[in-house]
Predict the structure of NADH dehydrogenase (Quinone).
Amino acid sequence: MMLQVDSPARLAEVRKVCESAFARQKSRFLVCAGTGCVLGGALEVYQEFVRLLKERGCPTSVELLFEGRETDAGAAYSGCHGFCQLGPLVRFEPKGIFYTQVTAADVPEIITTALDKNTVVERLLYQNPDGSKSLREEDVPFYRHQQRVVLAYCGLINPEDIREYFAIGGYQALADVLTRYTPEEVIDAVTRSGLRGRGGAGFPTGRKWAAARRAEGEPKYVVCNGDEGDPGAFMDRSVLEGDPHSVLEGMTIAAYAVGAGHGYIYVRAEYPLAVERLKIAIAQARQHRVLGQDIMGTGFNFDIEIFRGAGAFVCGESTALVRSLEGFRGMPKAMPRPRTTEEGIGGKPTLLNNVKSFAYVPQIITRGPEWFASMGTETSKGTAVFALTGKAKNTGLIEVPMGITLREIIFNIGGGTSTGQEFKAVQTGGPSGGCLPKELLDMPVDFDSLTSAGSMMGSGGMVVMDQDTCMVDVARYFLEFTVNESCGQCTPCRVGTYQMLKILEDITQGRGKPTDLSLLEDIGKAIIAGSICGLGQTAPNPVLSTLRYFRSEYEAHIGEKSCPALYCKELIAYWIDPDKCAEPCRLCLENCPMEAIVGKWRATPVIIQEKCIKCGGCFDVCPDKYRAVRKVTGPERLNLLERGLPARGRNGNGGG
């Protein structure tokens, strides 16, 4: 059914029609169709719901609901719920019952219990650490401690149906802006909200919009930066997949405020589902006259097209992104340079904001800037969206108020470490962020606090680490990423990061020197001072922060040839303790890919150090009741190597 929004007043009627139509579904099964759940089989789960509901005579076409027919149940996609590790996820409305790890084989039981028995499938409910079950999504600890604004509707509406967005009040903020606000009043509202850019730099959004409004030159452009390049980050992708219309509406409001007529969404080509749903959303928005020519009959024109980026991390930087949009290699402009609000695409004023920044805007207009400013801290308003990953028990996408502590995120939402090991550090801000120790667990999470601690908010990555994590290797890993992603244009970044990486490689491989630590610090400071863009200026952060908080680990690697976390292969050795290997099972010997473990029957096996590739296979297969295979480092390792392969072990076994 086509619902033309030919005037702002007509939007209210369209909303009522949509609300009424969807209300005719007495109940509904929402299947999470974010990328994570899709990979886990969510589409098969959805198709099974559709098939079985049709067999029960429940119309699955929403079109029929607009004709006044009522149905017992329906099924639909939704966006990402965030709790990705437990997908595919299914939510049963209107009760909000929350099922985890659902397969197509579970669907018949879910439908029967919901529609016929008015009960639930206990085994598919979330199980709390104390053994109890959470019936509703809101009761799960992972969600209970969150405050969802940008993600509020990602798991509740079908992102491929604009009518569901209308039903929850979608595009009302745009209608209000076009009829009741001047461009200056829109900018004033965004300014008073205290919204800062969520792309990493945290620049005040209102100031940027005001600068774009003042800038001379026509035409003007609005660009949405969806070039999410951090390893393990999926915040922007999930918003684009789960609630694309909020981004389109925010961009259109921004275009009205700054005087732009055309927009681009720069999204990574590696996000095919986000691209597909954006295409659908843009087409639907044009059809319903909330995007394109003569929006809502007001005479305002603004259209959006999608630009697929090639996956370069440096294109997250504004001038590099603009060059990529223009068809050139994505490389930042050298300093000094005008801001993109003054000179962007084709040398014309260009407003560039992150996906999440635009998604906040409709709610700021509808609920008021004071509402948004009431959340967060004095200098960091609103909420923050993070991809919580690493060795956390509960991983996924979370949204929390600014100012929440690291402890609350990692333990209340994340559930602590997944390994049972003691928490050691958390890395925030992606590969350009810093690693913060357990001593800072009670530090508030906001732009300024993280920066002062040697890290950054970034675009929202948060990686949890335990005691088995080597902080020197973590610094090496993230620096290797930035070395590979550097555009190579400026010498400090191109050469400096490479030099730092080689030093870190030497340290993790046992070739480090005492002078390396001061050299790392000096090079890092030079890179920060001399690089022309944010990638280079923040690239040393993982190294400098780990030197600041975990210096003793660097010193152990260099002075003792020891890796305290027992991780760096060149600094560890595997050894079979004959006192613990009381009943040799020979699993280690049978599973060694290099035949580096030898030993006679019923005798303790011995590892030939020269042949061992340190794959850890023997350690993994050793029964827990024995734990005879040990990892050793430092003096223990050196002593083992000096002794070489003993002619006879304690139990008299030789090398045969």
About this structure: The first strand starts at residue 28 and ends at 32.
